[in-house]
Amino acid sequence: MIKVLFLILLSSNLAELKAVERVFLDPGIDPLSDEMVNAINSLNTTWKVIRNFNTSIICCLCQMFHSYLTILIKIAEDIPERLTLVNNGHTVIHLNIRDQGVCGSCWAFNSAAAMSDRICIASGGELQVELSAEDVLACAPRMFVPANGCEGGSAVFAWNYWNDYGIVTSGCKPYKYAPCNHTAAGLALPHCANLKPEEPKCEEKCQPKYSESYENDKYYGKKCGHIGKYDNGVHRVAKIQTEIMTNGPVEASFIPYSDFFSYSEGVYEPVYGKEEIEHAVRIIGWGVENGVDYWLAANSWNTYWGDQGYFKIRRGTDECNIEDKVYAGTPDFSR
């Protein structure tokens, strides 16, 4: 089903159309109302919305904290106009969309997913492991300040933790927060708003009867840091593209507006509301749709949200600061 999704994206209409001038709607409209949905869909903009979210927005986001360790990247000479993990030859990777549940663990969830992708790609598909978001969530914040990982964290925590301590697999430490209903759809799941996350606890041991010890189950990273923080827009975009096409998905944090929660399809650019709390996702490719450059990203609010869990966001304009805070690293198989 995932391959079908990417084929649809690759075969989308490539006609060159002029980008329309950005319009912002009346801020008095309820961001989760049918009125807002109808208002956005009536605009001649690059994306569409549905009534996609209930009032439990805040539990799906996370406050992010950042530092600025920069990865040195030599920009590739031939960057394609379009790239996904499929058409780049990386066919054996973790394309599944997961659900972070009631915990605001986006920073841990999407870093662990990107690291898992990179291990698979770097090993030529031989190592198909899923690193533990639970291990990152519970144990990475201790490197900096005491924190409840469900209330926020940082990609810096996660990538430095991979580099310095290593991360075990989900087989050793499975994610403890079950999927919940983030959307307004009538799903057979408990509503996130009705749940309260248990505070993560760092336990350096695997679940009972797991075949490996905690230390032996670890995978390590190296050369972890930020991409293109101090570059201008064109060079920064090219460095992010080079990193993705060379080593795999990256983690990016951005500050979506209120209208993002109702995203359904197309290339997102805000037209309504205010900036919300920062959120982290995986960027897995890029392309052009109706003349508009976009990043293709994977979210962690289950497949019922957005375009089967994915979304596109305008590329090259640092939309919602998504090109400003991008993180990556490479697997270290020597440890």
Automatic annotation (TrEMBL):
UniProt cross-references to PROSITE patterns, sorted A to Z: THIOL_PROTEASE_ASN
Family: Belongs to the peptidase C1 family.
Start and end residues of each Peptidase C1A papain C-terminal domain: 79-330
Annotated source species: Tetranychus urticae (Two-spotted spider mite)
An individual GO BP term: proteolysis
Protein name (database record): Peptidase C1A papain C-terminal domain-containing protein
Signal peptide start and end residues: 1-19
GO molecular function: cysteine-type peptidase activity
